[in-house]
C-alpha cells in the first residue's frame, strides 16, 4: 500500500509541477557515416526543400557550420566522447569553445551543445561517466565567460539503457550504479534550465520480443494500448510510455521540472533475417504516424500540455556504418537524394495549421547499440 501511495503522490507532484506548454520542432538525423553522401551545401538545399528550421549534429564539422551560416537553421553541435577528459579542464574548455563555437556564432545559429553521446552506456563507460559532468560544467563556464550561455544550452543524450525499470511508466527509475553521476547531471540540467535528452527506439523492443509486443503499439497505429495501474494514464504507443518512464525516473531523483526530449528515434527500412519488422512499410508507417502527432503538438499522457520534441533518425541511409544491416537503412533518403519512402515532410509542414516546423539531427559518428 505504501508503494502505491508513493507512486500516486509522485504522479500528482509531476502533474502539478509541469503545467506548462511549448511548441517545439521535430528533428531528423543527418548522418555522415558514408562515402557517397552529398556535401553540406547540397544537404542544406534538401533541408530547405523540406522546410527544415532546426538541425542537430554530432560533431562540430566546420564544413557544416560554415554551410549553415545565414540559413536560419538552428544547430545543436556535439563534443565527441573522446574529448570529455580534455574538456574537464576549464582552460581547455574555453579554448574549445573559442575555436569550435565562437567563430561561427551568431551567423550560424548554434543553440545547444551535446556533451558526449550515450556516455552512460558506452563500451567503456567508467571513465567517461566520471568525466561527463565536469566537462559539461567547464563548457558551460566557457560559454558564460564569452557571454554565450544565454543562447546555447549544454546537455547530453542518453540511451534508454540508463533505466532500471521502465514498465509501467510510473515505475521508471535509473540504474543504481549510475545514481551518483545521474544526480549530478540532473542538478546541472536543473540549474541551467537545460533538457534531458533520451535516445528511444521502439523498434528494438519489438525486434527483441515480437510475440509479446503488438506491432501497432510500437508503430503508433490504432490499438487498445495499456493503462498504467498507478496513474491510470492510457498509453496508445510505446514511445510516449518510454518518455514518461524517464520523466518518472528523473522525478524520483528530485528533479520533476526538467523537460525530456527524444534525441533519436526511428525505424529501419531493411534488416537481416533476424531483424524482425525491419521493412519499408513499417518504417514509413512509424515515421508518418510520428510526424502527424508532432504536427498536432502532442504531449505525452503525463505531460499533455507540453509538446514532446523528437528527433527522427535519419535523413540518409549510410553505407559505412558498422553492425547489422538495419544500421545502414534508417534513412528517409538515399545518398543521391531519392526517397527510400515518402512521408510527405514538406506537405505536412505547409498544410499543418499548427506552428510546428520540421528540423534535422546530424550524426557524424553515431552508431546505435
Walkthrough of the structure:
The protein is an alpha/beta fold. The protein has a single domain, classed as Glycosidases (TIM Barrel, Alpha-Beta Barrel), CATH 3.20.20.80. It contains twelve helices and 14 strands. The strands form four sheets. A five-stranded parallel beta sheet has the order 1-13-12-9-6, with helices on one face. The chain has a five-stranded parallel beta sheet with strand order 5-4-3-2-14. The chain has a two-stranded antiparallel sheet with strand order 7-8. Keywords: Glycosidase, Hydrolase, Signal. It catalyses: Hydrolysis of (1->3)-beta-D-glucosidic linkages in (1->3)-beta-D-glucans.
Helix content range: 25-40%
Determine the structural class based on helices, strands and strand pairing.
alpha/beta
The H/E string reads HEHEHEHHEHEEEEHEHHEEHEHEHE
Using only CA atoms, what is the Rg? 20 Å
Strand content: 5-15%
Instruction: Give the spatial strand order of the biggest sheet.
Output: 1-13-12-9-6
Q: Terminal Cα separation, in Å?
A: 38 Å
Keywords: Glycosidase, Hydrolase, Signal
GO molecular function: glucan endo-1,3-beta-D-glucosidase activity
Signal peptide: 1-25
Protein name: glucan endo-1,3-beta-D-glucosidase
